[in-house]
Sequence to fold (61 residues):
Amino acid sequence: KAKVEADVISYNSTISACDKGGQWQLAVHLFDSMRKSKVEADAISYSAVLAAACRTEQGQA
Fold:
């Protein structure tokens, strides 16, 4: 079996997809996983996870 290592781009894409799908808890979990995996978050990472959290606060999720 081939193993693919996740990078910041794959994490960002997945977190954004979770946000758009209303899965804010999964978005936060993935962000936490990214940090634990020692993948360095960038501005897009923070923006995506904050967008998911903000939608929850606004009742959109």
The chain is about 65% helix and 0% strand.
